[in-house]
Amino acid sequence: MIPSAPVPASGPAEPRRVAVILAGGTGTRFWPRSRAARPKQFLAMAGATSLLEETLARLEGAFRPEDSYVLTTPALAGAVRALLPRLPPGNVLVEPEGRNTGPCLALALVALERLAPGAVMAALSADAWIGDREAFLADLELALAHAAGTGDLVTFGIRPAGPETGYGYIEAEGAGPVRRVRAFREKPGPAQALAFLASGRHYWNAGMFVWTLAAFREQLAHCCPDLLRPLDQWRAAGADPEALPAAYRRLPALPIDCALLERSDRVALVPARFRWSDLGSWPAVADLGEPDGDRNVAAGPALLLDSSGCAVFGGGRLVAGIGLQDLIVVDEPDALLICRRDRAQDVKRVVERLRALGRTDLL
User: Fold this and answer.
1) CA distance 47 to 109
2) Domain identity same for 26 and 94
3) Which of 48, 70, 303, 317 has the smallest set of CB atoms within 10 Å of its CB?
4) Sign of dihedral through CA atoms 134, 136, 137, 139?
């Protein structure tokens, strides 16, 4: 599941740069458009091409084509290769099963130590929206240089646009383009979110990271050795692909934030100058659209009369509504979703119920 190492080239003056795009998510909050075989990152949610394609294209010029990797699950590996035919087949890294971002990034580390020893690595999500590409690349360049020069683990912080309670926060201190991380904060309640917004020190956690492979290994070994030990033992035993699933199941299913970043004292933050959305629900996608005078957004044929605050994601047929307020409507050939905007996070419950009912045809 991890390709063999290439023949090393002559030593470059600067460390090699590699990008790892995490593309194993299931996108259950975007049912019925997102399905098990075609989750959110494979959909054109906010542009003409899929989020995964946009993520890879965004890196052009900052990384050599052969230095971009996509990490995904066995169920999605074929779809990734089909969607990205220009990506070398060996650059699709496959984790045996989805076990959160800690295990998959530890697996990426072990793979890249063979494929790109001594590199500095950017870990990016395949399913976020980023505006201002040039600002993003400038911030990424800053993070790469800082990580290579200091050995810090670098993350990106998004300046809060409001007292959002659905994001984790990062508290930073100091001034300048790179700041020291003081603490990671869990998703706050309304009052605490207002306090975070007023402080000027708190940022939304964008879930993007930059570090050298050496620093990543050293800090993992110090802060969460259980994420490394089974993989190192597997590699020392010969790295048999058939034995990887058993080793992988021994890894704690933790997000990298909890496993490493919240425990490390070597974390720095770049305050982002680019626009960002994690596209965590249908309303987040609607917020990227152009609303009409009644705050309605339509992607696809729609006719809304005496309605306000609605978002319609249609298909081939017309969706008409009368007297509607603050609704999300998603029309697919085999399923129709209608929910209140403030209940959009509960769409995953529909997926859970369908699974319990055995309706795999709709998953």
Assistant:
1) 31
2) yes
3) 48
4) positive
Is the confidence at residue 199, as pLDDT, over 50? Answer: yes
Read off the pLDDT of each residue in 227-238 and give the average, rounded to a whole number. Answer: 96
Last residue of a domain, one of 232, 257, 277: 277
Backbone angles phi, psi at 262, to 5 degrees: -70, -15
SS (H, E, C) the chain: CCCCCCCCCCCCCCCCEEEEEECCCCCHHHCCCCECCECHHHCCCCCCCCHHHHHHHHCECCECHHHEEEEECHHHHHHHHHHCCCCCHHHEEECCCCCCHHHHHHHHHHHHHHHCCCCEEEEEECCCEECCHHHHHHHHHHHHHHHHHHCCEEEEEECCCCCCCCCCEEEEECCCCCEEEEEEECCCCHHHHHHHHHHCCEEEEEEEEEEEHHHHHHHHHHHCHHHCHHHHHHHHCCCCHHHHHHHHHCCCCCCHHHHHHCCCCCEEEEECCCCEECCCCHHHHHCCCCCCCCCCEEECCEEEECCECCEEECCCCCEEEECCECEEEEEECCEEEEEEHHHHHHHHHHHHHHHHCCCHHHC
* pTM of the predicted model over 0.85: yes
Q: Domain residues for 306?
A: 282-362
pLDDT at 188 over 80: yes
Backbone angles phi and psi of 199, in degrees to 5: -70, -30
Same domain, 80 and 162: yes
Per-residue pLDDT band at 42 (split at 50, 70, 90): very high
CA atoms within 13 A on the CB side of 171: 14
Question: Does 4 have pLDDT greater than 80?
Answer: no
Same domain, 238 and 318: no
Q: How high is the pLDDT of residue 167?
A: 87
| β pairing state of 302-305 and 202-212 | unpaired
Task: Name the token pair of 3.
Answer: 């390709």
